[in-house]
Amino acid sequence: MIRRAGRRSAAMAGEYGSLLSRRISGALLAALAVLWVSGVLWLLLHYLFAQPGEFGVIRHPLEAPVLLVHGVIAMLALFLLGWFAGRHTAAASSGRRVGSGWLLTVLTAALVVAGCAQLFLTSATWQANVAVVHEVLGAALLLPVLAHGRRASAASRERDAPRDGRGAQHQGAHHAPGRRRNARS
User: Fold this and answer.
1) pLDDT tens sequence for the chain (185 residues)
2) Is 28 a member of any domain?
């Protein structure tokens, strides 16, 4: 029953792997890369380059602009993530990477909630605690994203490899690059 629902969802999502889907995926990956780099850069500036001053801590002058870029790209990434997730989850719901996809979903949701909570919490203690959660999750999220992507590219290569009638892969035959055989991920 679950496999049938997955196939139906894939059909409703349209041609997964289409040019639009690849463009959305590429834009999302670029936004996530900029988000991660700007977040790590902010962490370095905030914790390693702060200096004690006469009236408190003197922050690095690039800390505020890097944080602004991080916030703006976060809004773009949320938009792209919502757009991509609608197609990706429906088409990939019957695939083999469902577990790592759910892990990414839960971690990303916690990261977004922690990031937004920093803007609205009024207690300095709560704000500091949520900031640490956001910083740790954000820095660590790179590993599950890479693992999910690596499994996706391996599954894509396996799926795109030509097969003979018995299911064995042909060694020398190739088909057009970038074309997918079916709508499932």
Assistant:
1) 555 555 555 454 455 556 667 788 889 889 999 999 999 999 999 999 999 989 999 999 999 999 999 999 999 999 998 888 777 776 666 666 677 888 888 999 999 999 999 999 999 999 999 999 999 999 999 998 888 877 666 656 666 666 555 555 555 444 444 444 444 44
2) yes
User: What is the reported pTM?
Assistant: 0.70
d(CA 41, CA 84): 26
Pair 127, 150: CB distance under 8 Å = no
Residue 185 inside a domain? The answer is: no
Contact 21, 180 (CB under 8 A): no
Structure tokens at 121: 């919490």
Contact in structure between 185 and 88 (CB atoms under 8 Å): yes
Residue 166 lies in a domain: no
Contact, 151 vs 97, CB < 8 A?
yes
- Comparing CA positions, the residue from 104, 98, 91 lying closest to residue 5 is 91
Q: By residue range, what is the domain housing residue 40?
A: 2-160
Domain count, the chain: 1
